[in-house]
């Protein structure tokens, strides 16, 4: 659900100038983008982790009972992802990628909404994985959630990988799980090549992902942060807007819906 807070006109004008003047923008997105699609965030008061404890990677791997609980949560849609649709913020980002003004979207989100909004798969760099499918932790074969859900509904569990016998898990990065090296490397490359780095809806409190805007700024890029709440890097940014992401981006791009 979109915030009712509207950005000041002078901030909209400044963001418009930044976007029009850049050669290669990069977006860095967090939970605040997806809350405007109705997906609850994790860490804020009243967020998901205040209602249920996260499941750690080591526990998932070690315990069949923990794996059953994780799949139960997923198929009960306790995380709110099922049925969510891209919002205005997603659509504006996709438009800027399509027009060639943005080269990449680095995202902490796992909901697949950037891809659903029209951003090509190869332009989305997922730091924390993707919740729309599963993978074997050993051979990394992709398995569709619809197949796993049928099995779980019928048996109450998810069998080991048919190819190699490994543990099957949603393709997300859980607490205690190592960050994927390839996306982190790609994200750093995109960050160091951009001249405008725009943070959308991230508290910038989770590291090492939160280092990317710092790297961008130190490398000479313009830094803009659009987030409902203040972040620890607001003082580093060239522009800070505490308002609705969808309204802000729509207004900056001259979209009549903003």
What would your notes on this structure say?
The chain has 11 helices and 9 strands. The chain has 258 residues and is α/β, with parallel strands linked by helices. The chain has 2 domains: 1-39 and 85-128 and 179-258, 3-Layer(aba) Sandwich (Rossmann fold); 41-79 and 131-172, SIR2/SIRT2 'Small Domain' (2-Layer Sandwich). The protein is elongated and about 60 Å long. The two termini are 14 Å apart.
CATH fold category name of the largest domain: Rossmann fold
Main β-sheet description = 6 strands, parallel
- Corresponding CATH superfamily of the largest domain: TPP-binding domain
Low-confidence stretches: none
**Secondary structural class:** alpha/beta
**Integer tally of domains:** 2
The level 1 CATH classification of the largest domain is Alpha Beta
> What is the H/E order?
HEHHHHHEHEEEHEHEHEEH
The strand line-up of the biggest sheet is 3-2-1-7-8-9
Mean pLDDT: 91
User: Count the helices. How many?
Assistant: 11
Gross morphology: elongated
Please render the helix and strand layout as text:
Blueprint: H1 9-21, E1 25-29, H2 31-35, H3 48-51, H4 57-62, H5 64-75, H6 88-98, E2 102-107, H7 113-116, E3 124-126, E4 129-136, E5 142-144, H8 145-155, E6 168-172, H9 181-193, E7 196-200, H10 211-218, E8 222-226, E9 239-241, H11 245-252
Parallel strand pairs: 1-2, 1-7, 2-3, 7-8, 8-9
Antiparallel strand pairs: 4-5, 4-6
Helix pairs in contact: 1-11, 6-11, 9-10
């Amino acid at each position: 659900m979109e915030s009712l807070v509207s950005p000041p006109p002078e901030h909209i004008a400044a963001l418009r100038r930044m976007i029009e003047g850049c050669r290669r923008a990069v977006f860095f997105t967090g939970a605040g983008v997806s809350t405007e699609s109705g997906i609850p965030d994790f860490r804020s008061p009243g967020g998901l982790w205040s209602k249920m404890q996260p499941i750690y990677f080591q526990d998932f791997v070690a315990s069949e009972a923990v794996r059953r609980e994780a799949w139960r949560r997923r198929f009960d849609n306790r995380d709110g992802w099922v049925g969510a649709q891209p919002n205005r913020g997603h659509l504006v980002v996709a438009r800027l990628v399509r027009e060639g003004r943005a080269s990449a979207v680095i995202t902490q989100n796992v909901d697949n909404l950037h891809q659903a909004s029209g951003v090509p798969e190869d332009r989305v760099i997922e730091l924390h994985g993707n919740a729309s499918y599963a993978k074997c932790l050993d051979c990394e074969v992709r398995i569709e959630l619809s197949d796993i859900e049928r099995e779980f509904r019928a048996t109450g569990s998810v069998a080991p990988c048919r190819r190699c016998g490994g543990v099957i898990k949603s393709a997300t990065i859980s607490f205690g799980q190592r960050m994927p090296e390839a996306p982190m490397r790609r994200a750093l490359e995109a960050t160091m090549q951009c001249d405008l780095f725009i943070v959308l809806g991230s508290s910038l409190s989770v590291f090492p992902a939160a280092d990317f805007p710092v790297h961008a700024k130190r490398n000479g890029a313009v830094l803009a942060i659009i987030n409902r709440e203040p972040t620890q890097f607001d003082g580093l940014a060239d522009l800070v807007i505490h308002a609705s992401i969808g309204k802000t981006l729509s207004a900056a791009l001259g979209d009549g819906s903003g």
